[in-house]
Specification:
Number of helices: 0
Strand content: over 45%
Distance between the termini: 40 Å
Helix content: under 10%
Length: 116
């Protein structure tokens, strides 16, 4: 069993930055691909970024060049640095632990609101 706890959301003006953190319990952190998803009101949940245990990142086109994902395996923590934020980035952001392409565990979500 893995529990994921996110932090770092909040309200920011357009062009600003936020850093999300997600800390996992359990000893199997390094076996998971860690990912960030987001869900805006009235929209489906979408993947934003992911990172393999050896640090290879992937980004959705909508955030490429603005967001940076990283992980600290010693701290069981994954981060999402979000720069140049836009109002369309407003959503609840979820941390997820994936194996074999499927999400096995979700965090509780953290709200990110970007004002124009």
């Amino acid at each position: 069993q893995v529990q994921l706890v996110e932090s770092g959301g909040g309200l920011v003006q357009a062009g600003g930055s936020l850093r999300l953190s997600c800390t996992a319990s359990g000893r199997a952190f390094m076996t998971y691909v860690m990912a960030w998803f987001r869900q805006a009101p009235g929209k489906e949940r979408e993947i934003v970024s992911s990172i393999k245990y050896i640090g290879i990142p992937w980004y959705a086109d909508s955030v490429k060049g603005r967001f940076t994902i990283s992980r600290d395996n010693a701290k069981n923590t994954v981060y999402l640095q979000m720069n140049s934020l836009k109002p369309e980035d407003t959503a609840v952001y979820y941390c997820a632990a994936q194996r074999t392409g499927e999400v096995e565990y979700w965090g509780q979500g953290t709200q990110v609101t970007v004002s124009s």
